[in-house]
Specification:
By secondary structure, the protein is α+β, with helices and mostly antiparallel strands. It has eleven helices and twelve strands. Strands 1, 2, 3, 4, 5, 6, 7, 8, 9, 10, 11 and 12 form a twelve-stranded antiparallel β-sheet that branches. A hairpin with a 5-residue loop joins strand 7 and strand 8. The chain is globular, with a radius of gyration of 22 Å. The protein starts with 7 loop residues before the first strand and ends with a helix.
């Protein structure tokens, strides 16, 4: 059986069957391990239809599954990119709502002062006390404004079957990766969960090895120069959203032997965010939220063997990035490029 050697966290996008949702799987997992579930807020964003406002930031309810000793088994959250097959006109289930704002600082404050296990009618009450304001209700929407009348946040029902998308987020796994993943995926299969049309699997690997300029430059070369062969080898889902080639400024910087500072400047010039084939944003952040590099181009899967097999190929290629020779340009012919990419992985395997 294929095994992994790195400490890796996984994000696995699934879809609950009609009539079920994230809470369904959370309760099942907790029951199997003798643990419990805890509602949590999940931070996300989506494009805005309001002129002049590029995106909405929002909090949606997820569920953390805790083992009997209180350690996390996983967290189950929404993913706004999963849309296919949902009844977007469906009314919100009882208790399903979200909190919206246009400022990430306000949203973080709202998350600290609103109970994810609470109700829509009281969602903004604690935050309102901070501003000395009252929450106004307009139909199903609750609005909190500051004393000048500027909107701070909205709380609104969340319909459209948004309780069905279910992204499984694992803690970092250091050993027996397949067994740990199957502990989560077998129950999901039993309950009728499926792979969404737009699904992906994301890998979060420790970023410490990639904080040297040479290794980081090779990671950029790998995901930029070999983008199409990589996607062919891994079977990247063409329907997956929020993927993009790395910024041109960052790719241009690795044509020489850049320093880490030069790579950081190029990432800033290229407006690097997390929504690329590989998420390097935390490496360059002044105050990183987490200490990982995120590989975002694995296709959706609902068995541990599929995930671990592809993750093992990625792991070998990342090991190759740490070796002295720069990652070369691929040959023009797609078949030859795919063969040479596999040779890069095989070379890393032989050097273990």
């Amino acid at each position: 059986m294929t095994s992994l050697h790195r400490r890796i966290g996984f994000e696995i996008e699934l879809m609950a069957p009609a009539g079920a949702g994230r809470r369904t799987l959370a309760l099942d997992l907790a029951g199997r391990c003798g643990g419990r579930i805890r509602p949590v807020w999940h931070h996300d964003s989506e494009p805005s239809l309001v002129p002049g406002l590029g995106r909405f930031l929002h909090l949606t309810r997820g569920f953390e599954v805790l083992r009997p000793d209180g350690t996390p088994l996983c967290t189950l959250v929404d993913d706004v990119t999963l849309l296919d097959g949902l009844d977007l006109r469906a009314a919100a289930p009882a208790g399903s709502y979200r909190i919206l704002s246009d400022d990430p600082r306000l949203l973080s404050l709202l998350a600290r002062h609103s109970d994810p296990g609470g109700s829509l009618s009281t969602a903004l009450d604690d935050a309102a006390r901070l501003w000395g304001a009252k929450v106004e209700q307009h139909g199903d929407i609750h609005r909190l404004s500051d004393p000048s009348g500027a909107t701070i946040a909205l709380a609104a029902p969340q319909g459209g079957e948004r309780d069905r998308p279910c992204e499984i987020v694992t803690p970092p796994i250091s050993r027996e990766h397949a067994a740990r993943l199957e502990e989560l995926l077998a129950p999901a299969r039993d309950l009728g969960f499926t792979i969404p049309h737009e699904a992906a699997v994301h890998l979060h690997v420790d970023d410490a090895p990639f904080r040297t300029a040479h290794t980081l430059a090779n990671v950029v070369r790998l995901f930029a120069y070999w983008r199409e062969p990589l996607r062919a080898m891994l079977g990247t889902n063409p329907a997956c959203r929020r993927l993009a080639p790395l910024p041109a400024a960052l790719v241009a910087a690795v044509r020489g032997t850049p320093t880490f500072d030069e790579l950081q400047a190029a990432a800033k010039a290229g407006e690097l965010t997390k929504f690329f084939d590989v998420n390097l944003a935390q490496l360059f952040a002044d105050t990183p939220i987490r200490d990982t590099v995120e590989i975002r181009i694995l296709p959706g899967a609902i068995t541990a063997d599929e995930i671990v097999h592809r993750a093992a190929l990625v792991e070998l290629l990342l090991e190759r990035c740490a070796e002295p020779p720069p990652i070369p340009l691929p040959p023009d012919a797609p078949d030859a490029a795919l063969g040479e990419l596999l040779d890069l992985a095989a070379g890393a395997l032989s050097s273990r």
